[in-house]
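Why cholesterol 7-desaturase? Reviewers of the renewal asked for a concrete example.
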Amino acid sequence: MSAEKRAAAVVALAAGAALVTTPLDSGVGALPLWSAAGPRAAAACALAALAVVAAWRLCRLLFGPLVILRTADDVGYVAESGRSKAQAANEARRRRRTGDLPPVYPNGWYKVLDSCALRRGDVKNVTVLGEQVAVFRGEDGEAHVLDAYCAHLGANLAVGGQVKGNCLECPFHGWQYSGSDGKCVKIPYAEKVPEFAKVRHWHSCEVNKQILVWFHCDGEDPQWAVPEIQQITKGEWVYRGRSEHFINAHIQEIPENAGDFAHLSHLHKPGIISGTDLRYIHNKILKFFQHDWKLQWEPESKPNQHCSTLSLKHCFILFGRHVPQLDLDFVATQMGPGVVFLQCHLGLLGRGAIIQCVTPVEPLLQHVTHTIFYQSNMLPLIPKFILKAETIQFERDVMIWNNKKYVSKPLIVKEDAAIQKHRRWFSQFYSENSPRMQYQRDNLDF
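Here is what the prediction returned.
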């Protein structure tokens, strides 16, 4: 049970207790209500508890953040004949053809944690790019990322390890590693620390309330920085929620949608009320509400060649008629393979940004988060509705990605030219030594 639910339960019980122990009168020998009223007192207690819980839920709906968490088998698989979703997902993964895949880990910045998930003195065990890393926040407040396994006997530093100052202490023998460079600075039972005693230190940064790491297959230093969104830093835009998905696909499939204009008018035309199951989104009964999309994608030039920009205009079609009052404008800026800023402008309804982060967990398993920040002076229901609508549309793509194969030489028409243009742009994040998929089938089950 979450802290919020526990608090609500305590308040409900307190309110019920206060109600049922109220005296019937103020005279001597007044009886508690429960002893005089019996069933009526119990009913009153139950109603009071329900009222408090309802009030708490309403408060959360109106003012709390929206959090949508999906597991790897929650979305995009069809479970039939009495099978569970996990069984359907595992079967789909085993039988799917992957195709001729590009390298699986492009060079770039990747999110590992939200800043709020790592308090001072905390350490977390995170899987990123096929590696186990220990993410910890030192006593000075700075976040650090190290390889998780101790150089001594391989204990996991993030499982039972302790933060000591700005170092991480191994739970096995107490070796301490500096967060700034990964070098071992203390062995409690040894007179001298060997010069070569160290673990890998990952370049990291903390920006827009997120902790990111830099990956380059050749070990090169960061070649660009993730920019700061000033409105978030200054507190003008505040956190209003996030979604989290695990997608069984190659990382390139996800950003490639920016160059695939045609799929918007088919996959994303049905209204969000049509849901996410692709078998039913084209329901004729729900065709009174549809979306219309106009977009343009272009790569940026030097020195920002690692960026691209997608300009998107969204229109609502209600009973076949355009409703201009509900038009939405979005500008999505992609920085490298793993970070996208989606800025939205809704006129009188305010402005904000959704930060999309795609982080490879394994070669064909991507951890995707959407975090929304919005004007602090706007009703929270507005950004929460935007995030929910974004999630519905995104989960339609998830059903495609989870079941498709990658086609390295697609059969395309001239209207698909932007797809090839996007692939040429994305290829800059691969190097000669970029790791490729090793075909094996040893336990891919969830």
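The mean pLDDT is 89. This is the kind of structural detail the renewal will allow us to pursue systematically.
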